[in-house]
Design goal:
This protein is of the alpha+beta class. The protein has 7 helices and 10 strands. The strands form 3 sheets. A 5-stranded mixed beta sheet has the order 4-10-9-6-7. Strand 1 and strand 2 form a beta hairpin.
Length: about 300
């Protein structure tokens, strides 16, 4: 009996403690300090002056940081801070913007020797920006522009997703120029089907080459004499016809030659494909392009 009443007492105390704990957990004491309230005749709601002060300080801090960044860039480039402008949220020297605009609009000479050198182009415009064409540089460019303005020919002329016309040897031999000057990038994906009488296409050039932007590589492919070979790149760069797709006939020696120029805008690894409608298979060349001088990609 003595132990019984002790046990009951302990249970009662535990029950009381549990009730108190639950009550305080659901309703914690309010210890938050009251916010100061502005006098009624002050004309300022509670906290307005303080919030405006903090937001103003943040704005001033951001502006000071932006000014410091422009000063640091100006010091690094050795130009006055007034020559630093913000384009698209990025600080750039004014000379880069103006040189890029002048290169694209002021150079109207037809002489390639008068074209701006790669080194004279603004560093940030050297990568991914292809040179512009007028549209009348040669027969291939003029024909492409005419087709792009035609609803019927636009899709086949500019897309690799639409199959080109079926290759017919007699028609080609009757008028090779018509086939060679018509731009059809998708031809590179439609070589001849393998068969006993069909020879695979072969390369006479290295599959990998490395050049500086502004330099050229020469690609040679083995094919039947007089038969067409199409070269195509999905990246920036120009073949002999100033375009990214180029169809050329193999010479009497059975070699089709194409020159690819690493134009302004080309950089890194560039894929070049080659195929022929009379040979099976497809060739892949890779050309690594680096900038000749100035900041590299990681320095921009």
């Amino acid at each position: 009996m003595k132990n019984g009443w002790k046990f009951a007492l302990v249970c009662g105390l535990l029950i009381v403690a549990s009730v108190i704990f639950v009550r305080f957990s659901n309703n914690p004491p309010n210890r938050q300090m009251a916010q100061p309230v502005a006098p009624a005749d002050s004309g300022d709601p509670a906290g307005t002056i303080a919030s405006e002060s903090s937001s103003g300080s943040a704005a001033v801090s951001k502006e000071e940081a932006a000014i410091d960044n422009r000063k640091a860039l100006a010091d690094a480039l050795g130009v006055p801070v007034e020559e630093i402008v913000t384009v698209g949220g990025v600080d750039r020297p004014r000379r880069d913007i103006e040189s890029s605009a002048s290169d694209s609009s002021d150079n109207t000479s037809d002489d390639p020797a008068d074209a701006p050198s790669v080194a004279s182009v603004a560093p940030f415009a050297r990568i991914g920006v292809a040179p512009r064409l007028r549209g009348d540089e040669n027969a291939e460019v003029a024909g492409l522009m005419a087709e792009l303005n035609s609803p019927e020919g636009a899709r086949s002329a500019k897309s690799t997703l639409f199959a080109p016309e079926e290759f017919d040897v007699p028609s080609y031999r009757a008028n090779p120029a018509e086939y060679l000057t018509r731009i059809r990038p998708a031809r590179v994906f439609y070589p001849a089907q393998p068969g006993p009488e069909v020879k695979p296409i072969a390369t006479e050039s290295r599959s990998f080459q490395q050049v500086l932007q502004g330099e050229k590589v020469i690609l040679r492919v083995k094919a039947d004499p007089g038969m067409p070979v199409v070269f195509y790149t999905p990246q920036v760069g120009q073949f002999d016809n100033l375009l990214s797709s180029y169809t050329v006939a193999a010479g009497e020696d059975g070699i089709a030659t194409a020159t690819w120029l690493a134009t302004t805008g080309s950089y890194g690894l560039n894929d070049i494909l080659a195929a022929s409608p009379v040979h099976s298979g497809q060739l892949q060349f890779r050309v690594k392009v680096e900038l000749p001088d100035g900041p590299q990609v990681g320095d921009r």
